[in-house]
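Extended Data, panel c. Modelled sequence:
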Amino acid sequence: MNKSCANCGKPYWTTHPAKSFYCSLPCTAAAFRIRFAGAGNPNFRNAGWHKCKGCGKEFRDERRHKRTYCSRECYVAQPETQDRLKSMAKAAGDLGGMSKHARGDIGFRGKDKNHDEIVSAFESMDVLVTDLHTLGNGMLDLFVTLSPEEPGILVEIKNPNSKYGRRGLSKGQKRFLSGWRGSYRIVSDLDGVIETVKVLQRWHAAIRNNP
């Protein structure tokens, strides 16, 4: 019996007109990709509208993995998120309890001129940034991660246009890093930010592919 393909519209011959709707396997696959996309998939969980846990705003989630916040900004603004970020940063070592004088002995200093620029670059790439530059004790400037549930990287910002920046890590920072088992990077420009984000994205992909 002659029929028209439900996907491409071309005529084709079939001996099972009641059960056949497509002229070929590629047309069948193409039609099913459309038919079972998003909420049309019977295995698609949490599809549809949801209420943001933070602000109460309703948002549509068409992804398989459950979202509880309407946006990354709303998620980061929550007190519990800030607490988790701070606790992750504190896990890098003993961050407090030092006087300003003692911090000076191990290389404590103010922000580099390119500090805010680097922070803004990270945040523009949807990176969660915890600023640590005032903590002293040899701590680096930032702790960056894509999610509080995932590993992060300590970042030391260096300004290549200053004498201090060209000297590299201070003695206090070297002592701190000698006992640090995690990752760290020295960043001085946008290229350094991009390379750091690529590392975080590789980790993120590896975690999602190996739950």
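Residues 92-108 have pLDDT under 50 and may be disordered. This feature is highlighted in the accompanying rendering.
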